[in-house]
Write a structure and sequence with these properties.
Elements (H helix, E strand, L loop, with lengths): L6 E9 L5 H7 L6 E5 L2 H8 L4 E8 L6 H4 L4 E5 L5 E4 L2 H7 L4 E8 L9 E8 L4 H22 L11 E3 L15 H10 L8 E5 L2 E11 L2 E10 L11
Parallel strand pairs: 1-2, 1-3, 3-4, 5-8
Antiparallel strand pairs: 4-6, 6-7, 9-10, 10-11
């Protein structure tokens, strides 16, 4: 795939998560590069009417990128699995549910099939801690890969092997299952413990209890609990 003439020192940093903003701010201090932050499909399209960046880096993006963009620009996305294993949605949660303690952060060239593009780089990533901590760790690692790509201009390598697909989780799946041993319960709470995500929850009468900040010590598990009026059955995402 070839791309049009790009400005070799202009880069788009695309993310819908505010926790990535400090990474962007640090990159913006480089006087030899022009970094632009985009956080919505509208801002992405508008920016691309004015400039042609060398790379568009998608660190966390909740929307489908149209073919008209990835076919014209070199778009790089970051996926938290050792592709082709784990293509698809909710990779962090699916990995932890499957018992993984470590994974790879894969930098991929964006193409038509989700997470199926050729690979620029893979880096080791620990799955310890809360989802928020893991996402921040992945963000820092993504920036390392971005800087390496800018300095080396690598050609991506096609994926090999049989794909394993992940399904995107729904809010209803954040309900804590009844038959979990303590270690699995700890993993369930921490894998959903990130800003903007549906946290692990239980219902008690008219109330919903959300659990965060889990700590597991031997035969004891502690967690911070937020209690609020339970949503109506029509829109609470529950499966009871």
């Amino acid at each position: 795939m070839s791309f049009g003439q790009a400005n070799e020192t202009t880069y788009l940093f695309a993310s819908c998560k505010t926790w990535h903003r400090p990474y962007f701010d640090a990159l913006s201090e480089d006087a030899d590069a022009h970094w632009i932050w985009v956080s919505s499909p509208e801002s992405l399209v508008e920016t691309l009417t004015r400039i042609t960046p060398r790379y568009i880096f998608f660190l966390h993006w909740s929307w489908i990128v149209p073919r008209s963009i990835w076919n014209r620009h070199e778009c790089v996305c970051f996926h938290m699995t050792d592709v082709p294993y784990g293509r698809g949605g909710s990779p962090l949660q699916n990995l932890i549910m499957a018992g993984h303690r470590h994974t790879k952060l894969s930098a991929l060239r964006m193409e038509g099939e989700m997470d199926a593009g050729p690979v620029y780089a893979k880096r080791d990533l620990s799955l310890s801690g809360t989802a928020q901590q893991i996402y921040l760790r992945a963000g820092a690692l993504s920036v390392d890969i971005m800087l390496w790509m800018i300095s080396t201009g690598p050609a991506p390598t096609p994926q090999t092997g049989e794909p394993t697909l992940f399904q995107r989780r729904t809010p209803a799946q954040s309900r804590i299952p009844k038959a979990l041993e303590l270690g699995s319960l700890y993993d369930f709470i921490r894998m959903l413990d990130a800003d903007g995500y549906p946290h692990a929850f239980l219902d008690y009468g008219e109330f919903r209890l959300e659990l965060r900040d889990a700590q597991h010590h031997g035969t004891q598990l502690t967690a911070a609990v937020t209690l609020y009026q339970r949503p109506s059955e029509a829109n609470d995402g529950s499966d009871n």
